[in-house]
Amino acid sequence: MAGRVIFHIDMNSFYASVEQAHDPSLKGKPVAVAGNAKERRGIIVTSSYEARAKGIYTTMNVGEAKRKCPDIILIPPDFAKYRVASAAMFAILRSYTHLVEPVSIDEGYLDLTESAKTKHPMQLAEEIQQRILHELDLPCSIGIAPNKFLAKTASNMKKPRGITVLRKRQITELLWPLPVVEMHGVGESTSKKLQALGIYTIGDLANAQERVLQKEFGKNGVRLHKRANGEDGREVDPNAIFDTKSVGNSTTLPRDETEYYILKETFEKLSRSVAERLKVKYLAGTTVSIQIRNFEWQNQTRSKSLKTAIQHADEIFEIAWRLFLEHWDETPVRLIGITVSNVVDQADLTKQLNLFNFEQHIKDEPIVTLVDNMEKKFGKGVIQRGVRVKKKSYASNTSFSKDFLEDHHQK
């Protein structure tokens, strides 16, 4: 793994930059891509650097953004436009190497170890950055390092349009003095738990006892300890992004809500959305989680694990709604989210016999015997029970999730 040259490409203010590229009159102006500006559910998804300079940030309420920046230009999201721009960006990256791993619609890793043998990494980075700028009119930042963690960290150091090289020997000087919450992979919750252990900086984390971290955080504690020491052995895997671990959806309510029937309807709607996404991806999961954010922006999560994987809306709703009722103290609710995790491909599921389906299995027995005989004669897999037909779903194409990566299956 020594001597690898890994790039992390991070598009700058991607949605807003795409809008400015399509409409040059927006350049140099405070632009923000947001939801419905008439309701509180309208939040800032991303903003131009001109808007950020005036205090606008992602997840800010549209009303607050208007008060802070009266001349802000609000644009509704155009997912189709962003997917086209993303595909064009990744096409440029793949012209340098097949080892391109998309992470989200606007970022990805490249393993340019082979290319770096004939061309200096900085020269490659400048060339990629200029091509994306000139061909797509989009800015990006690039991090260069010997592994993915350091490359990701480096790309965040200079924005917009920066190129940063981060070597492992530099981490004690550049990373260790930083607050631990600034480390990629450490959120607010983990940061608070680390501080309770006396770990305040990335350096503290790097020098902490691994067994203490493992006891408190499990495998993730060991992983964070290694990352803080600049260690990351992950390969750049073009197919890694398709290994879905969870499927979920959330919504911000128009007002702080306490009405029972409205909350129930919201849970039902979200359950149908999650079920649709699971079906589109041919997945089912064994853990249902809910996220509740109250009017004071306090988050609460609850989950339930099952013995059998589920994917149907009524099953998801039943569990999610029960979790909510068990833990809701009637505090006004601002946001609701439902996630199904520990997902597996439907084809890998083992159907359990029970009182209600054993008769169907008995009916299928002659078919199973026929298939076995055919396979013995003509070979394994000659007959299959069914053929998957790829489903199209608006649910999979209109969210801010990683569903856009369907585009990459054909690459």
TrEMBL record:
Catalytic activity annotation: DNA(n) + a 2'-deoxyribonucleoside 5'-triphosphate = DNA(n+1) + diphosphate
Compartments in which it is found: Cytoplasm
Entry binding sites for Mg(2+): D10, D106
One Pfam family cited in the UniProt record for this chain: IMS_C
Cofactors named for this entry: Mg(2+)
Record carries keyword Amino-acid biosynthesis: no
Classification via PROSITE patterns: UMUC (PS50173)
Keyword Magnesium tagged: yes
EC number of the protein: 2.7.7.7
SUPFAM superfamilies: DNA/RNA polymerases, Lesion bypass DNA polymerase (Y-family), little finger domain
Broad class of enzyme this protein falls into: transferase
Main function: Poorly processive, error-prone DNA polymerase involved in untargeted mutagenesis. Copies undamaged DNA at stalled replication forks, which arise in vivo from mismatched or misaligned primer ends. These misaligned primers can be extended by PolIV. Exhibits no 3'-5' exonuclease (proofreading) activity. May be involved in translesional synthesis, in conjunction with the beta clamp from PolIII.
Family: Belongs to the DNA polymerase type-Y family.
Subunit structure as annotated in this protein's UniProt entry: Monomer.
The protein's name in its UniProt record: DNA polymerase IV
Organism name: Solibacillus palustris
Gene: dinB
